[in-house]
Amino acid sequence: MLDTLRSAARSWVAKLLLMLLVVSFAIWGVSASIFSGANNSVMTVGNQRVSPEEFRLAYQRQLGAISRQLGMQLTSEQARAFGIEQQTFSQLSAGAALDELSSKMRLGLSQDRLANLIAEDPAFHGNNGQFDRNVFSARLRNAGLREQDYITERSKVAVRSQVVDAIADGFQAPTVMVDALKKYRDESRDLEFLVLSNANIDPIKAPTEAVLASWFQTNKSKYRAPELRRFAYVTLQPTDVADPAAVTDEQVRAEYDRRKDAYKTPATRTIEQLAFPSKEMAVAALQQMKERQLTFDQLVADQGKTAADVMLGDFTKDQIPDQTIADAAFAVPASGGTTGIIQGSFGPVMLRVTNVRAETTKSFDEVKDEVRKTLALAAASQAVQSVHDRFEDLRGSGSSLEEAASQLKLKAVTVASDRTGHDGDGKTIDLPPADTLLTDVFRTDVGAESIPSNLGNDGYVWFDVREVIPERDRALSEVRERATTDWTAEQQREALSKKTTDLKAQLDKGGLTLAAIATELGLTVETKTGLRRQSNDAILGGDAAKAAFSGPNGIYATALAADGESRLLMHVTNVQQQPSDALDANDQQIKQIAGAAGDDLLDQMVVQLQNDYGVSINRALAEQAMVR
Question: HSE on the CB side for 609, CA within 13 Å?
C-alpha cells in the first residue's frame, strides 16, 4: 500500500498542495463538519488524521475536476478506472505529511500575518478593492463555514506553505547543470546522407489469399465500421421558401430603376505618366515630339527610364486623386493617345492612355432574373419565422417530419451518417452546414422528440433519428482493395527499413562508403550543416535529428524522412560545440530547470516523510464516505 502511495505522490504538482483545503471559494462546497473531531479517521499520517468528511469533499473535488475536463459526469465505476480514489489518498497523505513536519518543526504564524493573509484574499474584497468584513462573513456563511474554522484552516495552510516555499521556490539550479544543458542544447552537427525510396527496393508481389486473410485478422480493428445514425432531416432557409414567381414584373422594374447605378461598370483606362523636372523641359520635349515625330516611348527612353518607371496602372476617373490629371486622362479619345503638357500637383507631366474602356450599364433584360431572386429572398427572410412556427404546430399535432415538410413545400432527406459526416463507405455526405447537427443527432435516441438545430443566422434543421446502426467488424470482402493497398504499403516500409539497416551494418563494418552506395543505387549524396537537436528539417524531419545525435562524431544512422515514407542513411561528419558562456539569470530555461528540480525535491521529501511517519488507510470508512 505504501509503495502505491509513494508512486501516486510523484504524479501530483507539488505547489497545488496549498489548495487542498482552503483558498478558492469558486470550487468550495464545504460544510462545518469538515473540521469536526471525528473519532474514526479515513487516514492517519503520524499524528495527523483525515476525517471521513475531509476525504469525501477532497474526493468530490477531484471527481468534479476530471468530469469537467471530459465534459461528462463520471460514474463510480469510471472514477475507479481513472484512479480518482487513489489520487485523493495521495493528495491528502501528502498534505498531512507536510502538516506533521510543520508540527514537529514547531512552525507557526503570527496573528498579524494571518490577518494580513486573510485581508489580501480577493475573495473577501468589496467594491473598493479592500477587505470587507461583511463580504468575509457572507462568503463563509454561504460556504457553510464558521469563521473560526476557516481561520484555523487558513493558518494551517499558511504554515504548510513555509515548507513548500523553502523547498520548491527556494531552489537555484546549479551552474554546472545549466552549462551542461546549454552545451547539449546548442550542439550542432554536419552530416551527409542518402534518401532511399520504394524505387530502391524490389517490387512487392501481391499477397496470397491466406497471407492477406491472416494479416487482415490481426489488423481488422482498423477497418471497423463506425456507428451510424439513419435520420431524416428538413431544412428551412430563405432559399427554401423563396418564391420568385410571387414577385411581379412591376416590382422587378421598380427595383432595377432604384438600383440602376449598381449595375453600372465605370469607364476605366490604363495610364502612363512621364514627369519632367521643369516646365521648360516639358515644353521642349513636346516640341521635339511634334517636330521630329518622336513617340512617347522614345521620350521615355531619352530620359533613361523604362516602361515600368512610367506605368501608373488602371483607374476609374474617381480613383485618380489629382483632378487635373483625371480630367486630362479621360479627355483622350482613343487608346494609345497622349496628352499635352499638364501641370499636375507635383510638376509638369505628359500622359499616355491605353486600354480605354467605356462605361457600361447592364440592361434590364440582363439582370431581371437576378433582381427577381433577390426580391424573393428578401421577402422569404421575413417569412422564415412564420414557416418555422407552422412546422412546429404540425409536428405538435402529430404530423411526421415528411408530412409536415410536404404541407409546407419543404424537402425531407434521409441519410445514414457517422459522427464525422461520412457514410458507411467513408464517403462524405452532403449535409446542411449546421454546426451542431451531427452532435445533436448522436445525442438523440430513436423516436425521441428533438428541437431544431440552427442553420446559420436565419435557418433551422429539424431531424428524426430513425435507426442506430451499431459499429461492427467489417469482413475482408468489404475492404479487400483497401486492405491490399495497406498490406503492400506495410511490406514496402518493412523492406525499405531493412535495406537501410543492412546498408548501415555494412558501413559500420568499414570498407564501404556512402558515396559507393550512392553510385550503386543511382542516388546523390546530400549534405546538411548545422543540424540541431530541435531541428525539424523539411527533408530530414525530427526523427533524423534524434538519430543523428544518438552517438559520437562519425556514426552512421538511419531514420524515417520528413515525408513519412522515404528512409535516410546518414553519416555524421562533424560535431560543433558552442562556447559555454553562462546564461542570463532571467533566461526562461533556468526558471524551468529550477521549477522542475524544486518540485522534484519536494516530491521526494514528501515521499520520505510518508515513509518515516507511516500512512494508514481505513478503506472501509473511505468507501462509506464516497457513497454518502
Answer: 28
